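Minutes, project check-in

Agenda point 3 was the complex the collaborators sent over. CS summarized: two entities, 856 residues total, and the question is how they sit relative to each other. Sequences were read into the notes so everyone works from the same version.
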Amino acid sequence: MEKAKKENKGFIGWFKDNWAHNSLFSTLFALFVMVLIQSVVMWNNAGSFGGLFPKMRMAWLNILRNNAYAGIIALGMCFVIISGGIDLSVGSQLCALGAILLYLIEPNFGLLLKIGMTGPLAYAAAIIILLCLGCLLGLLNGSLIAFGKLPPFIATLGTMKIFRSVTQQLTKKFTPTVPAGFKAITSTKINGQVILPIIYWAAIVIIMHIIFKKSAFGRQTIAIGSNERAAKLSGINVNLTKRKIYSLCGVMCAIAAIIYVARIGSMDFANAGSGYEMDAIAAVIVGGTAMSGGRGSVIGTFLGMLIIGVMNVMNNILNSVGVPTFLCEAVKGAIIIFAVLLQKKESV
Amino acid sequence: MNLFMHKINKSFGANNVLTDVDFKLNSGEICALLGENGAGKSTLMNILGGVLPADSGTIEIDGKEIQFSSPVDSLDAGIGFIHQELNLVNDLTVYENMFITHLLKKGLFLDTDEMIRKTEDLFKRMDVDLDPKMMVRDLDSSYKQIVEICRALLQDASVIIMDEPTTSLTEPEIERVFAMMRTLKDRGVGIIFISHKLNEVMEICDRYTVLRDGSMVAEGLVSDTDPHKLAEHMVGHEVKTEINTRSGVSGKEVLRLENLSDERYFHNISLCVHAGEVLGVTGLLGDGRSELFQTVFGAMNTKHTGKILLDNTEITVKNTHAALEHGIAYLPRNRKENGIIKDMTILDNGSIVYLPKIVKGLFIDQKRQEELFQKEVDALRIKMGSKFDMITSLSGGNQQKIVLAKWLMSGPKVLILDNPTQGVDVGAKEEIYQIIHRLADEGAAVIVLSSEAQEIVRICDRSWVMFHGKQVGLVEGNDMNEHNIMFLATGGNSENKQKSDAYNVYAG
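CS then shared the predicted structure for the full assembly.
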């Protein structure tokens, strides 16, 4: 996309214009720089220009597939942060919801099996139950914040610990297996590739974008994040809207949990999803959403997740050009700072 | 030390705020500085406090001309300015606050003992009974006021400016501050006392100076005057003749409050407003009118007692959304903090209230949104570039009209306007007045909250005056003039209990 536009005659003028007025542009530019670095290193490894494209294709399929879970969660996080909040519990929500899903569909002693449901019907029921439970976990966060008047950071830090530790306690003697039929949700190949997680992600990006841009709920989310008091004095039910926002984030966690379980085929309850909250928050911020709320976009969050995705595979890339293993993390840290530095920022 | 300000001029843009103002203060004297809102009191004091430079004019201390370029200069010259919103750090102790600008050190560390000792010394000299080690958070407002005064004294202030020090204080607290002021006076300190409360002026001050529209209109000894004369000076003899010319026809009763009370802000408020009527509620800072109507709108988090009746049916307003559903609209004061949402476009700001009602299926019916918005824009004659520009690109008056438009779109039964012309220039002000009258003519019940008596007289059919959370009088017809409003709003009627009871009977 960038390359095609480079042929534009007044390139510098076009660039400056977009830089000043288009908030997505700087995110896009940061992504472009990252891909450029990635291609140069891979070209070096491939040895020839011709060998670059298949390698890049493989690399990007992996990046997209592996970040679909965190990417979907980031979309929920995007609404939360635009409303001026934060949700640290998303990783633990994914873990807890994943555990419940496994209990529901386990092929030997699953709960749905016990009531005589099997096959696609059971899977559909499990998915619906999970979406509702995701909504419920989010609602718990939202209620603590709206009625308990807790700072979102503290409320969700608390539920983060609770969700994970309770899950670990209840799953102590549980070694789950996933029925092959359920795995097909993600592993069915299209054109010889496993791309279903990517398709789900893309579809949800589009849905969330439309919700953000076209629904009253989307406008109210911005209003609350920009000026909560003015939002309240505009007759917006701030408490209700906040609960909706965190519930939506919970639903995103449920979707991520479904895809996660179907794709991985098991779950390590101590670690599954941990660190996703940081990836999701980073994606939202790198994608140009203001940490203070009020400004942001769903598409930017998607691009931000791609940047985080490339960053996460930089280990291999950097190792291959001779950066010592321990320093790779430092370079990743520098990249994330650089990506946000590149963005246009409003002076106070 | 004797202070003399001579022929001070100051203008902001084309707006002359002060014109050839003279002001003098002798040592050991308390001088009241009086005037309506916008008369130029604050500007004059900000010039004396070094916050603003004067365009022309001189300031003399003991006959020597001096110039201030910053608040520090002014403080160095011995002038301490106690602002209305106090400048204390709640999370530090009294003595730390006293020495905040020049903490005493012993080597690398703070010399706590010395600071406490010096604070205690000063408190003893000033007859203040206060432990320097207390946290400022735990002090009541009067002691905070006293700590601020002592801090100024610690820095050798011999003139102290007090900007409406008593507005947030209770009676015994006011007495404590007055006692402090008398002690200061005996020690030869000069005090400039800015207040709207004429009875307080009569009690504590020696001299007065009245400003009106940026000019000094009267000065003299307090012992030679009375509150009525002072109110007259503040308003001026030639009260502007632009008064309400509406026929004042009103329909059925729409909103009625019965004995509405809140433990902090207002007590036993009973009033009613009819369809097609413009009811004013006025008073000075701290009168509780804003909190009263935020309660009616469901925006206060405090508990209240009493009844709110809409169309003769008692309602409970749980939150602002419930108010919207009931058809109660509230245009808040302080547009920037409460009115506009700066990250949204003009169109979105203008339709945020009504958005949930124009949803088709799951999504906003954008065509309908723009149609309804355009209708209000035309009706209110709002000038703008593109409706997709950010709200912040508009002038104050047009921003205010957008905030008004968002409520009008919902077609409210009761429209509460809190300081509707705040930060709006004269032309737009007149337009907003006409809009308010048009809305009432169309059958809305309009309540205007304003601290400007002139505004109340200009647009309201009748008006309640509040003082410290209580209704002190209802003015209407020929009684509704600036003089009467000012007299009631300054507590002039507070001893006259019978009269206000009579008004209450009227309301019931």
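Noted in discussion: Chain B touches chain A at residues 297, 299, 319-321, 323-324, 329-330, 332, 337-344, 348, 352-353, 355-356, 359, 362-364, 366, 406, 410 (CB under 8 Å).
Follow-up: revisit at the next meeting once the mutant set is ready.
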